Amino acid sequence: MLNSKEKSSIRIIHTADNHIGKKFSGRYYSPSHQERLIQERFEALERVVESGNERQAHFLVVSGDLFESLHVKVSDINATVAILNKFKGEAILVLPGNHDFYESSSDGLWGRFISKLSDDKIVVLKNYEPLECEIEGNKVVFYPAPCRSKHSSTHTIDWIIAAEKDTDAINIGIAHGNVEGRGFPGDKYFNMTCEELASANMDLWLLGHIHVPYPLKAQTANPGFFYAATHTPDGFDCRHGGCSWYIEINKEKAIYMEQVNTGQLRFHTLSFTLNNHTDIDSFIHTMEQLNPKGSLVKLSLSGRMSQDDIVYLREVIHKLEKEIFYLEIDNRVDLNIDEAYINTYYCSGTLPFQLLHKLSANTQNGLALQLANQLIEQLKK
Ligand SMILES: [Mn+2]
């Protein structure tokens, strides 16, 4: 293992799948929710750049899908270039992924992006050719495998596998797509196998496409390839807080890695069974652990409670709705119809009173009691 900040090491901040320009128009997001989700992708990109600057990284590598699509607003392209320009290292290397694949028209995404660049510090890795640099006395060679379409049943790393390599140089492959066994099933996402990646003899593989980091946590050994993961969560299927990799590699090919948290929003899918006051209190306790202003929560509630507890729960939910940034609730908590309830709400001796009492005598009749009570309530109206 390499000690962090060894003098002669190459320092890289690695991100991918930033999906700038994603609109978040699904679900029940209000315009203000959408705005915050959109804005967070820019702010998190700034955090990636800052993390690289703090660690004096030489390179910022974006392994594809910096943009959501080829049809991103010009103002979003400009804002992205402005953020990347804040990187203080040697170069920013941007690989076109499958969402933002490379096509050469001057008024397309990449034509517009390139027209905004004031110097050659930001490089769009659009060609299948090596890029050589000299850093701290080390020769570093990047081997990019850009996407030229949204889908492909074949990957684009063959040229890297076949290329002649200088084994004295630090060789770094950059690609976007599935590694078989890790990502989405199917064969349309530039699938690569671990064997193919290994056969290219790269010292580092910096990949994008899968929104989950690989390895999951920092380790001492070279994992064979890295997935940066998305830099900030983008939906309820995202279980991490958004991250990037900071990686150092030296002449001897020893590596040091650090997982950097770059997101500030978290998506949570939670479910609770609530049957009494104590259950509600422990539900409140769990909810209090979340950062309310940075949380998007999908909540499922079930159980059966007394009238008083239902009123209490209603107050609790009302408070949560005010505090939590985004809250979606599926509330299936039913009223518990027990003897106390029947005695309070029905006159003794009436037919409904007798019916409900008979049903409540047997605990197996919970559902029948609910239905009977609902029917009686409806008949009252
Ligand atoms: Mn992708």
What does this structure look like?
This protein has 381 residues and is α/β, with parallel strands linked by helices. Helices cover 30% and strands 23% of the residues. The protein has a 6-stranded mixed beta sheet with strand order 4-3-2-1-10-11, covered by helices on one side. It has a 5-stranded mixed beta sheet with strand order 5-6-7-8-9, with no helix packed on it. Strand 7, helix 5 and strand 8 form a beta-alpha-beta unit. The radius of gyration is 28 Å and the shape is elongated. The structure holds manganese (II) ion (MN). Residues 64-65, 97-99, 176, 209 line the site of manganese (II) ion (MN).
Ligand kinds:
manganese (II) ion
Q: For the record, what CATH class of the largest domain applies? A: Alpha Beta
How many beta-strand segments?
14
Helical content stands at 25-40%
Assigned CATH architecture of the largest domain: 4-Layer Sandwich
Q: Kindly, what is the distance between the CA atoms of the first and last residues, rounded to a whole number of angstroms? A: 75 Å
What structural category characterises the helix and strand content? alpha/beta
Following the backbone from N to C, one meets helices and strands in this order, namely: EHEHEHEEEHEHEEEEEHEHEHHH
Shape: elongated
Q: Helix tally?
A: 10
